[in-house]
Amino acid sequence: MATVGVLWEHEWSKHGVCAASDDSFILNELDYFNVSLEIKLKVNLMRYFTNELALIVPDVVHDPTLPRTEDHICRRCGKQEAVFFQSQTLKAEENMRLYYVCTNVECLHKWTE
């Protein structure tokens, strides 16, 4: 099993040396990882790398307050009924979006249009 030191050495040699240039304030491993941690604290990276559909809980198909549609056929199982709702996307620069969940409990496919 690799030690933490081996991990940091690998990360520096694989990624950090590219960030360290003659005009950079990143001079060594410590600088590189301090800058990385600062960025992590300032930017919610999960917002950009998370699959929004994965965040939808399949149990929404049992919510009686959500509207249903028969106008959107599930591409996975062919069922002609889906629960749908509108939500702001994780990326603030994008508009509201409709999300659909197939009501077939054997399928529960999620999609957006």
From TrEMBL:
Q: Which Pfam families match?
A: Zn_ribbon_TFIIS
* Main subcellular localisation: nucleus
Stored InterPro entries: RNase_T2-like_sf, RNase_T2_His_AS_2, Rpa12/Rpb9/Rpc10/TFS, Zn_ribbon_RPB9_C, Znf_TFIIS
GO cellular component, alphabetical, reads:
nucleolus; RNA polymerase II, core complex
> Which keywords, in A-to-Z order, does the entry hold?
DNA-directed RNA polymerase, Metal-binding, Nucleus, Transcription, Zinc, Zinc-finger
Could you name the domain of life of the organism this protein comes from? Eukaryota
Q: Does the keyword section mention Nucleus? A: yes
Q: Which SUPFAM superfamilies match?
A: Ribonuclease Rh-like, Zinc beta-ribbon
Kindly list the places in or outside the cell where this protein is found, as annotated in its UniProt entry.
Nucleus, Nucleolus
Alphabetical list of PANTHER family matching this protein? DNA-DIRECTED RNA POLYMERASE, DNA-DIRECTED RNA POLYMERASE II SUBUNIT RPB9
Q: What is this protein called?
A: TFIIS-type domain-containing protein
Species source reads Schistosoma margrebowiei
